[in-house]
Design brief:
globular; mainly alpha; 142 residues; 7 helices
Length: 142
């Protein structure tokens, strides 16, 4: 298991204990609830590590290989590379990750379509992808 997928798994399963309160251990219902909330997206605030841009830029650089793995797994599963409706593609994300790391000042200067933003998009995509993978690995029916 790669480091980003391990981070996703650890974060969700730790939250599942809180969702399972007052039980002393993680319950199936608490685990399902944690996964459902975690899989609603990385811009909801559930992922506390993914709220502030500067730490996310550091995470994107640290996990750049794992983000590449998520993009490749998506392409294998979907039969085509990742791309968004506004033209951002897996290739553009991969190139941006290779050129990093980026500072917050670079992020602010380059605007919405620059490489720093693409690296953040890659991080958010990979976290969401691995959340689904971990749920499947655990056999959860969500």
């Amino acid at each position: 298991m790669n480091r980003l997928k391990s981070y996703v798994r650890r974060t969700i399963l730790n939250a599942a204990r809180e969702y399972s309160h007052p039980a002393k251990r993680r319950t199936l219902e608490g685990t399902k609830s944690a996964f459902i909330d975690a899989m609603r997206g990385t811009d909801t605030g559930w992922w506390t590590d993914l709220i502030y841009t500067a730490p996310m830029l550091e995470m994107a650089h640290r996990y750049r290989r794992d983000i590449g793995t998520a993009l490749a797994e998506y392409a294998d599963a979907a039969g085509e590379p990742y791309h968004r409706y506004n033209g951002e593609s897996a290739d553009a994300i991969a190139l941006a990750l290779l050129r990093g790391p980026y500072t917050f000042d670079q992020y602010r200067e380059e605007g919405d379509k620059g490489p720093a933003e693409l690296s953040l998009l890659g991080l958010r995509f990979a976290v969401e992808w691995f959340a689904g993978e971990v749920a499947r690995d655990l056999g959860l029916e969500l």
